[in-house]
Specification:
Elements lengths: L1 E5 H11 L3 E9 L10 E6 L17 H4 L3 E7 L4 E2 L7 E7 H15 L6 H7 L2 E6 L10 H4 L9 E6 L2 E6 L2 H4 L6 E3 L29 H7 L5 H5 L6 E8 L2 E11 L20 H20 L9 H5 L6 H15 L1
Parallel strand pairs: 2-6, 6-7, 7-8
Antiparallel strand pairs: 1-9, 1-10, 2-3, 4-5, 4-12, 8-9, 11-12
Helix pairs in contact: 7-9
């Protein structure tokens, strides 16, 4: 079922559900880019459809909405432990097909990996998706190669053009808001090809660990962790205990995003550390994205959004690395 309406009508819908939902979408942050006088596109709360950036890929994924960068798990005193209150509002997120696929990967790690993470589950159960289409493939995207360019897992689909909003509604909860509007056939279009094509190696196994190509990344990578930060599927975290100054026995435990690429991530008691070389860290990340995860769950972790390539200050390309790996596997054979 599809509906067509003026922007103002759709804004009325957003205003109506704002009492029940927090609404997130990619928004333009003026002057907040990497370099001076540049902008950034990042997820934030919106009130109108005009605030949403449709024609640019967001620099950060919507992951931080359902998996906060810093999340307090509980507060503690000398004799009690208390979990923080969770906002009762539901969450509506505007996102693209690749990012919907990315959330599926997070669900796999946090909900279907032998244990349900209660903190992630509380937020995830409240989330509904609004699909945004990509008229053209963006720079560095390779979603077609990863099979994440199309999806049916959404509640609403939205297309904005010439002051009009076209909506496909797949969730009965929202249909009542649009029943008075003009009906029309509304079908999302999906990207069918990218400029970047990635060939996942066949027959990939532990022998590739000794590939000489990993050493290139020891020389180039600066261990900043940007690739993990912008990635929609990276799920690693560390724990921090915060003690208050007025009472050293009172504080809170926080879960904070972590990066397998940064120094100290694999540090252990006694001073031992795994993967001290940056090339080894790159190997760990790449193999997890296109080998280990697939071996365990039957599909690749990477969704081909290309944000890691966009963000790297050393112009290290994940997609290029996988293609090099593919060639290396052929040569080994």
């Amino acid at each position: 079922m599809g509906f067509v309406m003026k922007n103002e009508k759709f804004n009325s819908f957003l205003n109506s559900i704002a009492q029940e939902y927090k609404i997130y979408a990619p928004v333009l942050l003026k002057g907040k880019g990497v370099f001076s006088d540049t902008d950034s596109v990042r997820y934030g709360q919106i009130k109108t459809v005009e605030e949403i950036v449709f024609d640019k890929k967001s620099n950060f994924s919507p992951k931080e909405v359902i998996l906060p960068i810093t999340q307090t798990l509980f507060y503690f005193t000398e004799d009690s432990v208390t979990e923080p209150k969770v906002d009762d509002k539901k969450i509506l997120i505007f996102l693209r097909s690749c990012d919907i696929h990315a959330v599926k990967r997070l669900d796999q790690i946090y909900l279907k990996n032998g244990f349900e993470d209660p903190y992630y589950k509380k937020l995830r159960e409240k989330v509904k998706f609004v699909l945004m289409e990509c008229e053209n493939s963006f720079e560095n995207c390779f979603c077609v190669s990863m099979g994440s360019n199309k999806t049916e897992e959404y509640d609403l689909f939205l297309r904005v053009k010439d002051g009009q909003v076209s909506v496909e509604c797949k969730n009965d909860e929202f249909k009542a808001y649009f029943e008075a509007e003009e009906t029309a056939e509304v079908i999302p279009s999906f990207v069918e090809e990218n400029e970047v094509e990635v060939n996942i190696p066949e027959g990939l196994d532990g022998k590739i660990f000794k590939w000489e190509g990993w050493k290139e990344y020891s020389e180039r990578c600066i261990a900043c962790g940007r690739c993990n930060t912008v990635c929609g599927t990276c799920s690693c975290f560390t724990m921090q205990d915060i003690f208050y100054k007025d009472n050293g026995k009172v504080g809170e435990r926080r879960r904070v995003w972590a990066s397998c690429q940064v120094d100290g991530y694999t540090d252990m008691a006694g001073g031992h550390s795994f993967r001290k070389e940056k090339g080894d860290r790159m190997r760990f990340k790449v193999m997890h994205k296109v080998y280990d995860f697939n071996k365990r769950f039957g599909y690749h972790m990477c969704v081909g959004c290309g944000r890691c390539d966009d963000a790297c200050p050393q112009y290290i390309s994940f997609s290029n690395c996988v293609n090099k790996l593919n060639q290396a596997v052929k040569e080994v054979e």
